[in-house]
Amino acid sequence: MRKPLSVLLSALALAAAGTVAGAGSAAAASTTPSVVASAKSAAAAFGSICYQAHVQNVGWQNFTACNGTDAGTVGQARHMEALTIATAGVGGVCARAHVAGVGWQAWQCRPDGQALTVGTTGQNRPIEALEVAITSNRPVRGNAHLSNLGWQGWKPWAESTQVGTVGQARAMEAVRFEV
What we know:
- This protein has 2 helices and 14 strands, in the order ααββββββββββββββ.
- It is mostly beta strands.
- The radius of gyration is 14 Å and the shape is globular.
- Residues 1-28 form the signal peptide.
C-alpha cells in the first residue's frame, strides 16, 4: 500500500523544518519511501540520518524523524519494536538491534538513499539496544529513552554509537540520532 502524495509531501515538509508531528499507524511497506525521501530532503551540506519507529499498539508512526528529533514515544509506556533508517550525503548506514528474547540481530548495511529495518513487527518484542554506524566512518551519535529510566543522554561522537541497554530488560521507547 502506498501513501498518498500529500502524506509524503507532509513528511518531507516536517523533516525539512525539523519538527515532529503526532503518531499513527501505517503499513510497513509504505515507510521506506518516506524515510528515504526525508533523508534526501534533510541532507543539506552536512548529510542526514532519518528514522521511523514501529511502536507497540501503534504500528509504524506516520512521521519520519531526522537529525536529532525523536522517533518513538515518551511518557506513554510503549516500546519500540522496529526502526527503519536511511541516510543521505554520508555514504550509507549500518545498524543492528538487540531484541528482547532474541538478542543481537545481524548487522545490515545500505548505501545512501536506501532504507534498512531492524527489530521485529507483530511479535511484541521490544528493542532494548541499537547500534548504528555510518559507512564512510563519519561520526554519529545517539540517545535513547528507556522504560523506567528516561533519556540516557547523548553518546559521544564516534564511528558507531550504541544506545540502550543489554541484559537489563529495559525496553527502548524512543530514539534520536545525528550525523
